[in-house]
Amino acid sequence: MSSLPLQLVQIIINTTHLEKSCKFLEEFITNITNVLPETVHTTKLYGTTTFKDARHAAEEEIYTNLNQKIDQFLQLADYDWMAMEPGSKASDYLVDLIGFLRSTFAVFTHLPGKVAQTACMSACKHLSTSLMQLLLEAEVRQLTLGALQQFNLDVEECEQFARSGPVPGFQGDTLQLAFIDLRQLLDLFIQWDWSTYLADYGQPTCKYLRVNPTTALVLLEKMRDTSRKNNVFAQFRKNERDKQKLIDTVAKQLRGLINSHHS
User: Fold this and answer.
1) Which runs of consecutive H residues, i.e. helices, occur in the chain?
2) Is the separation of the CB atoms in 144 and 84 below 8 Å?
3) pTM metric for this prediction
4) Which 3 state secondary structure label does DSSP give 1?
5) CA–CA separation, 183 vs 39, rounded Å?
6) Model confidence over 75-124: pLDDT tens digits?
7) Locate the Exocyst complex subunit EXOC6/Sec15 C-terminal domain: which residues (predicted)?
């Protein structure tokens, strides 16, 4: 792990200690000098604010640094978007990334609880958003169900990390919710559960409430052109024409949802 997070953690610990110490220093000066309380107040604000500002700056740098490290790992992602079958485990780059996050947050136990929680949630949200962008980026013009299943293994690894409680203080599945958009999108496609999605769309209890129809259509279009070449939907035991017709029908309904939403 880079030494920078460790340095930032130490800065936060030190400035927090100094900030608390200001109170005792100011009381000591008041007692020995008999300075009026309103005069001390000016010094108190300056001293406390200085250390507080330094601490906040270090906290923000931690969040930024973590996101940058996540981006570095994601640059190592090398998905075979045309894979016929998924691998047997999560991608190596993702396993290494989760290992880095675990070791980092183990150090964060020395930080104030809120700082550690914010850093962890920020990292998980950034990872989730980046994975979604990776899946939907324009350069990925085609993908197979096998590729999507491999991607799902990686998201499951992220969810397991969130469930493991990398930092204390989160209530229930709060941290897992950082990956809810990915989870619902992947479940919809892997289970091919369009009848449920289309029937319940717009209802607050919808199973796929977090799946935007525009996002779903983008992903569906990527799978459309691979269905004939790679027999993507073989598990449905339909001929190629029926499978293509099914995709076209779903795509048309998704466009209808999008148009009705914007009208």
Assistant:
1) 3-33, 37-74, 92-107, 113-136, 145-163, 180-190, 194-200, 213-224, 227-230, 240-262
2) yes
3) 0.77
4) coil
5) 57
6) 999 999 999 899 899 999 999 999 999 998 888 777 765 888 988 999 99
7) 7-222
